Amino acid sequence: MENDIKLLFFTVDGYKEYTRGSRMKKNLQIEELKELILIDAKKLESDIIQIRRHIHMYPETLYEEENTAKYIEEELEKIGINSSRTAKTGVLATVKGSREGKIVALRADIDALNITEDASVSYKSQVEGKMHACGHDAHTAMLLGAARLIYKYHDHISGQVKLIFQPAEEGGGGAMRIISEGHFTDVDWVFGLHVWDPLPSGVIGIRSGPIFASSDRFHITISGKGGHAAAPHQTIDPTSVSADIYNALQKLISREIDPFESCVLSVPVSEASEAHNIIPTSSKISGTLRTFNPEVRSYLIDRIRDVVEGYSSAWRCTSKVDFDPIYYPTVVNDETVVEALFKILEDVGTLKTMDRTMVGEDFSFYLREAKGAFLTLGNRSEEKGIVFPHHHPKFQVDEDNLWRGTAIYTLLGFFNSFVV
To answer: Cα separation of 388 and 375, whole Å?
Structure first.
């Protein structure tokens, strides 16, 4: 294929191409460097764990990650890496190699969630109502560990490595803001990593093509006429209309969308009266739409508006439907990049073609600017009791796994040394 990535390995005398079916010689310098990176990543294990625990104890949500950013800056300064701010509370650093080459970007998200942690650990969240319940603390720690190794071996880098510590992944579109500030105009390859509850601890999940779904948030307001709940005939009850709309929206997927399409429409938020005997003037419901097909997404957005307008009008209510201006597109991994990763990461852990997920990720914006891939690192361990899903108050990270993440980030930082 014309767009195939060729795997190259450099020796003292220059580059040597690797083709399928041939055997890589153990005396190649890139293999020696790879071995050193794995050894060094394992040696950093306790440091990475301590970094993760510190960040975990002091979670900050979107665009409020000021203390987290300062901590990252201090850790980078200890290594000898200069950094600057991006997207208000994000941190950007660049490590330059000794030779000219392409630019690789590595991203870790740094924000937490508005969740109260329910765990009996010494490093439990110290911030009321906030928690790292999605593993972003682990991502940050793993990339900081990789920063040490990338800097240590920067003489072997062809080109540059950009380290992106991104704020506001959880709904704030931090990736969009970083791109809008011009930090991606020169990036050739981009990679991200996420600890992943559905996969067993230590398994590396990779998939080419669409992997994470697009994500939209919507808010529906139904307005009527309030009054006493004992005299509903004297009111125009918006809550009964909201209930009808809730049920009708579920039929859009089952009755109007091809069953071979992957899409989800969930409406988990409902706000109305706060008293048993009061019919409110208005009620609100909110939800999320997840799809892989842009045409299906567009169709469902139009049909949601149709359903809301139709039911509201039938029951003499007025309505308003708002979709958040920031929506996350589908994450689409580059096929040739993924093919190369199966060879590059084969010594880090068990590699698996992961299933697609309806979870959204703003890493999708980066992949619209540069070729690359979003990977997952298995986190689930029945033996250790690490069984709760992302965004759960009892969610935990398998810390024995963090060194693998550092190794993955580091090897991806040397992507230019493997491919052309």
So the answer is: 20
Which among 60, 117, 169, 399 is annotated as catalytic?
Answer: 399
Structure confidence by residue, pLDDT tens digits, 310-351: 999 999 999 999 999 999 999 999 999 999 999 999 999 999
Residue with tokens 């050193």: 36
C-alpha distance from residue 212 to each of 3, 246, 374 (Å): 24, 25, 9
Which amino acid is located at 129 in the chain?
G
Question: Is 63 tagged catalytic?
Answer: no
CA distances from 70 to 91, 108, 110, 142, 260 (A): 9, 15, 12, 17, 47
Taking the CA of residue 397 as centre, how many other CA atoms within 13 Å lie in the half-sphere pointing to its CB? Answer: 31
Identify whether 271 is a catalytic site residue. Answer: no
Q: Which two tokens stand for residue 151?
A: 């800097």
- Tabulate helix, strand, coil % of the chain (nearest 5): 35, 30, 35
Q: Which residue segments constitute the domains of the chain, with CATH numbers given?
A: 7-211+331-418 (3.40.630.10), 214-323 (3.30.70.360)
Contact 337, 372 (CB under 8 A): yes
pLDDT one-digit tens code per residue, 284-296: 999 999 999 999 9
The structure tokens 């992961």 sit at 354
Task: Say which amino acid occupies 229.
Answer: A
Catalytic-labelled residue, pool 328, 361, 366, 409:
328
Q: For 61-111, what is each residue's pLDDT tens digit? A: 999 999 999 999 999 999 999 999 999 999 999 999 998 999 999 999 999
398 Cβ contact list (under 8 Å, min separation 6): 195, 201, 379, 380, 381, 384, 386
What is residue 65's three-state secondary structure? coil
Please state, in angstroms and as integers, the Cα–Cα distance from residue 146 to each residue in 93, 193, 385, 406, 413, following that order: 12, 12, 28, 5, 8
- Could you tell me how far CA 279 lies from the centroid of its own chain? 41
Alpha-carbon Rg for the chain in angstroms: 24
Q: HSE on the CB side for 231, CA within 13 Å?
A: 6
For 258, the token pair is: 């091809």
Cα 256 from chain centroid (whole Å): 30
